[in-house]
Amino acid sequence: MDYNDISANPLVAFPDMPPGQFLLGILSAFDNRFQAVADGFFKEITWKQFFAIICLRVLEEPPTINELSEIMGSSHQNVKQILLKLEKKGFIEIFPDEKDRRKQRIRISKKGQKFCDSHDPESIRLMGQLFSGISDAEFETAIGVIGKMEKNLKEMQNTEN
Question: For residues 11, 15, 17 and 18, what is the CA-based torsion angle, rounded to 10 degrees?
Answer without folding.
Answer: 140
